[in-house]
Design brief:
6 strands, single chain, two-stranded parallel sheet, Alpha-Beta Plaits, Multidrug efflux transporter AcrB transmembrane fold
Length: 325
C-alpha cells in the first residue's frame, strides 16, 4: 500500500535551510515556554491528599469525580482499584494544607489530611450514603521531586542509549543526527504541553518516553534506506541519495504515523480521563517526530558530511573503504 509514488523525487533537501531554521526556532520557543509558563504538574509531582473509599454497589469513576466537583473539589484524580466498588481519590493539596503538612512534628500534617479526607467522605456520602473510607494519607512534594528527577534521568538515558545503538549499527554521523532530532522532538512536545497547560502527570511522563522510542522508528527506516542506496549507487551525490531515501520511505512513514495517530485518537475519545494525557502527548509526539524524520534528520546528515565511504563494509582486501580519509 502506497500513498505517495515510490519513485517520486520531491526535493526535501532543497528547503533544508528553512526546515532546520524552523526546527531551531521551535526548540528555542519550547525552552522559553517551559521556563516561563512551566509545566502544569499534577498531584503525582506536587504531592497532596490520597483517599481510598469503598462503595456498597458498583460505581462509575465519572460519577465519583462529578460528586467531588459538585462539592467544590477541583481536578480530583479518581481511579478504580481492581473493581467498580473500590476507588482511589487524589487531590491537590491547598496552600494552607501544604503549609500545615510541612510541620516537623508530623501531627499537624496528620490533622490536615484527616480534615480533607473527612470533607471528601462527606461530599461522597451526600450523593451515595453507603460509601465508607478505607484509608487516607498525605503525599509530600518530596516524592514528586524524586519522580521528576528519575523521569529526567530516564529520558536522558533513553536518548543516549539510542544514540549509542545507532553509532554501532550505522555510523557516528547517524547517531549525532538521531540525538539532535530526539532532543528536538522531546523539547517541542513538552513546549506544546506547557503552552496549553495540560496537566503533567505520570501517564504524560510515560508518553514522553514513548515518544522518544516512537520517533526514532521512522528515522531508523530512513537511515537504513540511506545506507542501502549509498552502497548500491555507483555515482550519486549525497544530497540525491538522501532525497531518494526520504521519497522511497515516505508512504511507509505517513501510513505508520496515520494509523498510530488513529489508535491514539480512539484512546483519547474512548479510554476516559485516566489515559487522555497519554493519548494527547503521543499525538503531539507523532506529528513532531514524523516531521523531524522527513525535514530535520537528513539535512543534519548532509551538513555533517555523510558519504559513501562512511557506509561501505570493512573488508580485508580494502579496509579503508569504511573510513573517511
Amino acid at each position: 500500500m502506497e500513498i505517495f509514488n515510490h519513485n517520486a523525487n520531491v526535493n526535501f533537501l532543497g528547503i533544508r535551510k528553512y526546515t532546520i531554521g524552523l526546527a531551531v526556532l521551535l526548540m528555542i520557543a519550547s525552552v522559553g515556554l517551559i521556563f516561563t509558563k512551566g509545566l502544569n504538574y499534577a498531584l503525582d509531582f506536587t504531592g497532596g491528599i490520597s483517599v481510598e473509599v469503598s462503595y456498597p454497589q458498583p460505581t462509575d469513576v465519572g460519577q465519583v469525580r462529578a460528586a467531588l466537583q459538585k462539592h467544590g473539589f477541583e481536578s480530583p484524580l479518581v481511579q478504580s482499584l481492581g473493581g467498580s466498588r473500590q476507588m482511589s481519590i487524589r487531590l491537590q493539596a491547598k496552600e494552607d494544607t501544604a503549609d500545615a503538612a510541612a510541620d516537623k512534628s508530623g501531627a499537624t500534617s496528620s490533622a490536615a489530611a484527616d480534615k480533607v479526607a473527612n470533607d471528601v467522605l462527606a461530599a461522597l456520602k451526600a450523593e451515595t450514603p453507603g460509601v465508607t473510607m478505607t484509608s487516607h494519607s498525605f503525599v509530600t512534594s518530596a516524592v514528586g521531586d524524586e519522580v521528576k528527577s528519575d523521569g529526567s534521568v530516564a529520558a536522558i538515558f533513553v536518548i543516549i542509549g539510542i544514540g549509542l545503538y545507532l553509532w554501532m549499527r550505522f555510523e557516528r554521523r547517524f547517531a549525532i543526527a538521531a540525538l539532535v532530532t530526539e532532543v528536538h522532538d522531546v523539547l517541542v512536545t513538552l513546549g506544546v504541553i506547557a503552552l496549553v497547560q495540560r496537566e503533567f502527570d505520570l501517564t504524560v511522563l510515560a508518553s514522553v518516553l514513548a515518544v522518544i522510542g516512537y520517533s526514532i522508528n521512522d528515522k531508523v527506516v530512513v537511515f537504513d534506506r540511506i545506507r542501502e542506496l549509498f552502497r548500491s549507487a555507483r555515482k550519486a551525490e549525497p544530497e540525491e541519495i538522501l532525497n531518494r531515501s526520504i521519497n522511497t520511505t515516505l508512504s511507509r512513514t505517513i501510513i505508520t504515523s496515520l494509523f498510530t495517530g488513529i489508535t491514539m485518537a480512539a484512546l483519547y475519545f474512548i479510554g476516559g480521563p485516566a489515559v487522555e494525557g497519554f493519548a494527547v502527548t503521543m499525538l503531539i509526539g507523532i506529528v513532531v517526530g514524523t516531521l523531524s524524520s522527513i525535514f530535520v534528520a537528513s539535512p543534519i546528515l548532509l551538513w555533517l558530511g555523510v558519504s559513501k565511504k562512511d557506509l561501505m563494509p570493512v573488508t580485508k582486501e580494502n579496509p579503508e573503504l569504511a573510513r573517511r580519509p
